[in-house]
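Hello forum,

I keep getting stuck at the same step: I have a sequence, I want structure tokens, and every attempt I make locally crashes halfway through. Rather than fight my setup again tonight, could one of you with a working pipeline run this one for me? It's a single chain of 151 residues.
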Amino acid sequence: MASRHLSRSIAMQSLYEWDFNGLKEGDLDIVTERNIEEFGSGLEETDFIFDLTGGVKENKEFIDKIIEKTAPEWPLPQINILDRNVLRIGIFELLYGNKENVPPKVAINEAIELAKNFGGESSRRFINGVLGTVYRGILEQEQEKEEVESK
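Reply #2:
Ran it on my machine without issues. Output:
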């Protein structure tokens, strides 16, 4: 398993546990450290895991608003914990990630792989649909910005 994919898996498992246990402030780093020890043997670099978990935690309110806006028929508490946290990681990478290291389509595909590996068929389709919509919205905003700047 590629190290970035494994890192995303560990981040997702950590966010899942943190969310399941009530999003307690100091717990995420402890959970992440434990999951790295348990599942990350052989990983040379763990910064990417902490970038994902810390970034999701820091931007959770904004990311959650995007999820609610993009999937209005699914109130956030009704989205299963796995899907909710895979979406958080995917949206974090789309909005805040280094596009040269992780192009948007790679971030979406990785999120779909997480859903496929840990969730079910409906998870994969749901993640794909929401992240695809978010990505199209980002592209539209970038295009509008370019049009305004060219005038």
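The mean pLDDT is 91. If your local run keeps crashing, start a new thread with the error log.
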